[in-house]
Design goal:
44% of the residues lie in helices and 6% in strands. Strands 1-2 form a two-stranded antiparallel sheet. Helix 2 packs parallel to helix 5 and helix 6 crosses helix 7. By secondary structure, the protein is mainly alpha-helical. The chain is globular and about 60 Å long. The relative contact order is 0.08.
């Protein structure tokens, strides 16, 4: 029985407490396979995929690839959680990245390099999100994370070119909702005509919101040019 603040009540069949969940992969803990060695050099076993990587996406390269397999044989999707934004479009970018690797169109770094990058990324996200990064493993900045993957895929929107040739679209990208259509303008799996149709109908923020955003972007750009690299705006 649920009793609400106004004194009313409701008899429910069940009450589900949305208290979160833990990353775990029982198939890697199956007694039949858990002790099988999957990486001779390190001696890693199947269960290590759960305890070392599955439960902590920070140890994955770009929170996708298990560094033990530079060919991309083992990958996890949906474990980069945006602080603001949504997991599904983030997982879409991950799947596009994965497809390029499996097709041989994009090569992953060596195991040692992937481990090093994962550590740098973890330090960056920890610096950005502090306590929350430790509480929610996998926490990322929506735009920075997607831009990072898009940059490696060659799908990052050429903002300067768009500004000079299609200023109205540039305005929509910069001051409208952040969507994945901007990563369909160039590069693999691009569909610029359809993306343009979407941006033609997409709204932008009000004058005050756009002004504040523009002011922050310009200030950050000026500070970065003066040598304050930590203020460098992404892809601007």
């Amino acid at each position: 029985k649920a009793v609400f603040a106004d004194g009313s009540s409701f008899v429910a069949d069940a009450i589900v407490a949305c208290t979160g969940y833990k990353n775990t992969f029982p198939m890697f803990l199956d007694p039949k396979v858990k002790d099988d060695v999957i990486h001779a050099e390190s001696g890693a076993t199947v269960q290590d995929l759960n305890s070392c990587f599955g439960t902590n996406p920070r140890r994955l390269y770009k929170q996708i690839f298990c560094p033990l397999f530079p060919e991309g044989d083992v990958a996890f999707f949906g474990f980069a959680r945006p602080a603001f934004g949504s997991i599904p479009p983030t997982a879409e970018m991950q799947s596009r990245f994965y497809a390029l690797v499996i097709d041989g169109k994009l090569q992953l770094p060596s195991t040692d390099d992937m481990v090093a990058v994962a550590k740098r990324d973890e330090a960056n996200w920890t610096w950005r999100f502090g306590y929350d990064a430790k509480r929610v493993k996998g926490l990322v900045d929506f735009q920075l994370y997607c831009d990072d993957l898009a940059g490696q895929m060659g799908a990052l929107p050429p903002l300067m070119r768009i500004f000079l040739t299609k200023p109205r679209m540039w305005w929509k990208i910069m001051f409208g909702p952040f969507t994945m259509h901007q990563y369909r303008l160039v590069g693999p799996y691009a569909n610029p005509a359809r993306a343009a149709k979407v941006y033609a109908k997409q709204p932008v923020g009000d004058f005050l919101e756009c002004s504040i955003t523009a002011a922050f972007l310009i200030l950050a750009k000026v500070l970065s040019l003066l040598g304050f690299e930590q203020f460098t705006p992404n892809n601007f």
